[in-house]
Amino acid sequence: MSYAHAKTLDVEMIPIIDISPLRDGTNSMLVAKQLHKASKGLGFIYIKGHGIPDEAIKLLRKDGLEFFRSEYDTKEVVKVSLKHRGWLGYGGAKMKDNAKADLKESFIWGYQDSDGVSAEDHPLRGQNQWPGFVPSLEATAMSYFSSADALARNLLKGFALGLNLSEDFFIKTSSNPLSRASLVYYPSQPKDFGDDQFGVSAHTDFGVLTLLCQDDVGGLQIQDINGDWFHAPPIENTIIVNVADLLSRWTGGEYKSTPHRVINESGKERMSIVLAFDPDPETIIDAREVFDSNFVPEEPPITCGDYLIWRFNKAFAYRRKENA
Fold first, then answer.
1. Among the four residues 108, 126, 187, 208, which has the most C-beta atoms within 10 Å?
2. How deeply is 54 buried, as exposed, middle or buried, from its count of CB atoms within 10 A (0-12, 13-18, 19+)?
3. Which residues on adjacent β-strands are paired with residue 303?
4. 200 within 8 A of 210, measured Cβ to Cβ
């Protein structure tokens, strides 16, 4: 038995873009044009000059590994809530009905105020659950969340400018976003699990924009327009950004949400840090607002919140049990 096959990355497929001129305002349109071109391709981009401090990443990685290396019963104390906050163990996620359950664990959190309070006004937004056995995780996770949120907002300004929209178009209703962050832990996958087992099976991301901070282990693979799979290895000092389904829908398919998967064949543990940025739940996703009222989108308008509930209910076993 063997792993599912993937080719070596063609460096022309996923560009490396330095977004410093966008972040500091010295040449926002230059970066916007680069983001626009990349988003019409595979929709995956290596981002340099992202502004997330190295120390914030290192400290969160340390705490995350301490969490995942803990005993099952210890982690069970912060078992994922119905608001999608906390620890999701092995077998808790499956991206397609006919796929094997993903070989991964996750720890999920979202925005909270300075008193540690989170809004409880939506099925996918609620109180964070912090493990007392890793006491520093709350501080390191929220520090990273703040930096990654700022990066996502800057990138969405760039995407808007690339479409000749006002820079706040994609974030103008983001005072209470549905964004969530996660630590995702992949054990090394034995060959004898077969070529139909994945850390995460082939899928497209649910929301508007995904920010992925890889470690140095590798394992991410991306599908090109011909259906071939390519490795997307970690590149030092970069964050991978990809267009997700709602941004593709919002742009009438002009920006591409591309299938990807993870296979950890390294012989080592792998942990990624992910931010999924989504605006306020009542935000209407309507491509006619990007183009004009005469544009006929393939998919009807939908709120961000309704779309995400539908996707989460399909993907996560704990939600299917609750709704049964």
1. 208
2. exposed
3. 284
4. no
Q: How far apart are CA 21 and CA 279, in angstroms?
A: 24
- Taking the C-alpha atoms of residue 87 and residue 214, their distance in angstroms, rounded to an integer, is 20
Contact 241, 204 (CB under 8 A): no
pLDDT reported for residue 324: 43
Would you say the pTM of this structure is higher than 0.85?
yes
Tokens (6 digits) for 218: 């590798």
β-partners of residue 231 are 221
- Tokens for 15? 């560009």
- Which residue type occupies 45? I
Reduced to 3 states (helix: H, G, I; strand: E, B; else coil), residue 125 is: strand
Token representation of residue 130: 């912090």
- Three-point CA angle 274, 147, 48, nearest 5°: 75
Tell me the domain boundaries of the chain: 16-323
Sequence-separated (6 or more) residues with CB below 8 Å from residue 189: 3, 103, 197, 198, 199, 263, 264, 265
Q: Which fold has domain 16-323?
A: Jelly Rolls (2.60.120)
The pLDDT tens digits for 247-262 are: 999 999 999 999 999 9
Q: What is the pLDDT of residue 106?
A: 96
Q: Is residue 39 scored above 60 in pLDDT?
A: yes
